[in-house]
Amino acid sequence: MAVTDKSLSAKRAAWVGYACGVLWYMGNCYWIYQTMYLYGGLPKPVALGILILFSLYLGLYLALFGGLVGWLAGKFSRQTALLLSPVVWVAVELARARVTGFPWDLLGYAQVDNFLLTKLAPVGGVMLLSFVVAAVSALFAYAVSRQVTMKRVAFATAGLLVVLGLQAGTLYKPAEDAAGASAVLLQENLLVGATGRNVERLSEVEKYRQFEELSRKPLIGMLEESKPHAWAAAMPGEKHDLIVWPEAPADFATSDPNFLAQVGGLAKETATPVISGSVGVDFDKSVEGGYREYGSAAVFDKDGSYLGRYDKIHRVPWGEYVPYKELFFFAGHLVDGVGNMSPGTQHTVFPLNGHRVGIFICYESIFGDEVRQFVLNGADVLVNISDDGWYGDTGAPWQHLDMERMRAMENHRWILRDTNTGVTTSIDPHGRGTFTTPRHVREAFVFSYGYLNDVTFYARYGDWFAWICAGVAVGLVVAGFGRKQRQEL
């Protein structure tokens, strides 16, 4: 809304919001273009078109926000609309998460390093933090909208004090959490994202040989003042609680007896459970091709037995499937390179070492309301396997990491994050990474983690706060229809 003697009309406010939204997504998610053409195999014009269409589509949510705030200003008052705008903002974020299914970089993630403010995460999740950030912004806008200079100064000063108070949380350092367990996380550095880095193509036999050898002889982080991220060989024969291989473009399939034998053999020889990224295959004569494929995590117990797999529920649009494929008939063979993975349906947890492990895959980590389901099903540690190589050397891997850090805080759980090309790390329940591995290297690294069994308010009730905001927003719209348009003086 413009700060003038008159509020913007709802229509004009919507257009301003739309322009801001399109520019925001073009800038914040610029990596979609690189992902689509460089790693997705799509022609550059198609990749650019996807980025533009993506931005034009998601920009509609900011148009909705601007239009609603402008409409409320006309029905009530400009100041009232500004004070209510944080509620509208969170309601629109909820709509983006549930309708579009792409809650990437919600406003609350801006405070992921504010370890005092993020104490709200286990209560109301990232959208409660979004409300706080939006409320502070609204307070400044409210101050500017006042007609009396002294009131402007008073509200602006109050807003500044609030900001300073909130940002003091970045100085807060939570106490260290007890770990007690260790995992070997393999960073495979295969193909995607490793282009041009002298990474050789490996035969299937060589992949198993290298990956098993690295898993048996991992590196461990060294706390050296001069080299805070130095690594050294772990003690020979040291026992660990878990081995994890990430989601990656490896030709591992759960229908392949050799895969089951090789990884099961590693688990048995090391007496250590193994979780491995793979393609889940279910043979089904009723579907085209005779089988269904899933992005999966295969799980082996320490005796080498295959316990089953978790199938990715939220697939990557334009990577693992074409959304609304029937609407893109005009694209012809241009989208043939896009995968056709089927979605999983169960938030499966697995009993390992007397504990229960929940596994989510790749960008499923951006869905807070989904990740909490593993905790409700009894998971006392979470594992995320991902192939962030698709993002290349953009800012996306770090954006992805920050969102996963929020999941750790919302659920008060350790998260073991194993990726193909980095960023691989262990995240404590306060959202802190213990070590960060170097990117684009093929190595296995040891990380400490722990088990917790409490259930946070957010884990139990999910996006309750966002739903309240959505209800209030709907109530405001209903109330607004009962009022005549307010004339600004």
Walk across the major sheet and give the strand order: 3-2-13-1-4-5-6-7
Number of helices: 12
The helix content is 40-55%
- Envelope shape: globular
Strand content range: 15-25%
* Number of strand elements: 13
Q: What is the CATH class name of the largest domain? A: Alpha Beta
Question: What is the domain total for the residues?
Answer: 2
Structural class: alpha/beta
CATH fold naming of the largest domain: Nitrilase/N-carbamoyl-D-aminoacid amidohydrolase
Order of helices and strands: HHHHHHEHEEEHEEEEEHEHEEEHH
What do we call the CATH homologous superfamily of the largest domain? Carbon-nitrogen hydrolase
Distance between the termini: 17 Å
What would you report as the Rg, rounded to the nearest angstrom? 24 Å
Which architecture name of the largest domain does CATH use? 4-Layer Sandwich
Main β sheet profile: 8 strands, mixed
- Rounded average pLDDT: 86
Low-confidence stretches: 1-5, 328-338
List the helices and strands and how they pair.
Elements: H1 10-28, H2 31-39, H3 44-75, H4 78-100, H5 121-145, H6 149-167, E1 181-187, H7 204-216, E2 219-222, E3 230-233, E4 242-245, H8 257-270, E5 274-283, E6 291-300, E7 306-311, E8 349-352, E9 355-361, H9 368-376, E10 381-386, H10 396-411, E11 415-419, E12 425-427, E13 443-449, H11 457-461, H12 464-481
Parallel strand pairs: 1-4, 2-13, 4-5, 9-10, 10-11
Antiparallel strand pairs: 1-13, 2-3, 5-6, 6-7, 8-9, 11-12
Helix pairs in contact: 1-3, 2-3, 3-4, 3-12, 4-5, 4-12, 5-6, 5-10, 9-10
